[in-house]
Structures are given as C-alpha cells and as structure tokens.
Amino acid sequence: LFGVEPEEIKKDCIISPFWSASALLGSKVHANKGLLYETAEAEDFTLMKTGMGPVFCGDCVLYLKDTPCKNIYLFGSCGAVKNLDLGDMVLIKGAYDLEGFSRMLKNRDRYHFLHRPEVTQKMVSVPIFYNADKSLTNSLLEYAEDIKPATCATVGSLKLEIKYKDAFVRNGIDCVDLEASAVFSAANSVKRKALGLFYVSDVIEKYPFYKPYSSQEKNLLNESRKRAFRLLCQFINRNISESKILKH
User: Fold this and answer.
1) CA neighbours within 13 Å on the CB side: how many for 45?
2) For a disulfide at 174, which of 27, 150, 154, 220, Cβ 3.0-4.6 Å?
3) How far apart are CA 11 and CA 170, in angstroms?
C-alpha cells in the first residue's frame, strides 16, 4: 500500500493529498510508490502523497494504525469562506462532515450546523463535527504567530460549495476542503493525534478554484505553500528535540 514496510514509517507523518514528495522536499528525495500511496522518508517524518478526497486520506489514517505513526499532519490547501484571503496559513480546529456528494446535493436547504455529535447520529440533516487533536493544534498555535485558526467544512462537491456559502457564513465556517473531516474521524477511530495545516488557494466566488491565477497570485501561493510546509517541518523537529531532552 505504502511502497515501504509498515515498520519503516516514522512516528510523525505528513499526509499530502495533492503535493508530491519532490514538490515539497525537493527533486533529490526518493519516493516509494505503493499500490495506493507514495511514501518518502525525511529525517524527522514520513511524507505520504495520498490522492485527493476523503476515501484515500481517511483510509491512509486507518492503515497507519499498524505502523509506528502517532502524530498525523494533514497538509494542503483550502478554499476561504470568510475572514481569510489568498495565501493565508490556516490551522483547522475541526471540520464538519459534508463529504457525501449526493447527501450534499439533496440536503442543501435542510442542513443545520451543530457542535453536538450525539444529535447528529439521529438527524441526517445535521453534519457531524470532528475535532482536530487539541493538544497538537494548540501547540502549533503557540509555536507560530501568523497562523489563523479556522473552522472547516469538508465538502463532497466543489460546484455546490458556492450554493452553501450563505449557510457557511451564518454558521461560523471559515473555509472548505476535501479531506479534513475524514482524517480527523479516522484518527479518532485509531486513537492517533491529527491536525490540519492549510494555505488558502481560492476564495469562494471572489477567487474560484478554476480561475486562472495572475503571475503575482502564482508567486503568492507558491511562497505560501513553501512557508506553511517549512513551518510544519520546523514544528515537528522542535517536538522531537524536546521529546529527546525530556527522556534524558
């Protein structure tokens, strides 16, 4: 599945739905291609390109149960709903599950957003909210000053997210993505810690994802991706260093 043996996977794993190892770590890094996932080993962490969408990312987390992985970092891009702009770094506090295309298409006028998982199991029209790991998320917030905490909705349709915009705004949703709720729910299921660090690559209606970028916007997004990934690498390195100090 991973292209490497399960025991080779490190304690800290970065999951990248879209970006390859060469794009994030440089062309000299060797990536092993498994049946589903592309895996590369950095000094402090394992990087996995999963493919986009909740199925590939959620399954990746479930498969990581049988490896040394303990901390999972979802890294990618998101679409802004409000209070965010192109290039912003976003740390996801939690994500609503709107993963299903047909359910999202059918229930547009019936959805109610509640932070009450016990109710959502009985009411199909109420999306379940899945939290990122609080200790890992708060630690990264304390480490970096220019990250914006946000509430996310993981959607099953890029087309339909525009029709949901007013509902998102009313219910305090800051951004949308395609994987976060699946990663958080899967991590909770296998008792692993998970956070989501994104950069804003589009803004609903204002900068739709299919709009061609200007050269200035391309540079902005490229620098934002590099800055966010560099920050994540530094954060992982710091945690490893602190852990070694505590052990001694």
Assistant:
1) 27
2) 150
3) 39
C-alpha distances (whole Å) from 137 to each of 35, 130, 146, 147, 182 are 31, 13, 14, 11, 17
Alpha-carbon gap, residue 111 to 241, rounded angstroms: 45
Q: CA-CA distance, 77 to 80, in Å (whole number)? A: 10
State the residue for tokens 């052990």. 247
Amino acid at 30: H
Q: How far is Cα 153 from Cα 178, in angstroms, rounded to an integer?
A: 8
DSSP-derived secondary structure for 97-133:
EE--HHHHHH-TTT----S-HHHHTT-TTS--EEEPP
Question: Hey, CA dihedral for 195, 180, 108, 169, is it positive or negative?
Answer: positive
DSSP per residue over 133-161, as a string? Answer: PHHHHHHHHHH-SSEEEEEEEEES-TTTT
d(CA 156, CA 163): 13
Q: Which pairing describes strands 129-131 and 38-41: parallel, antiparallel, or unpaired?
A: unpaired
Report the length, in residues, of the chain: 248
Q: Which CA distances in Å does 94 have to 91, 107, 163, 168, 192?
A: 9, 21, 22, 14, 15
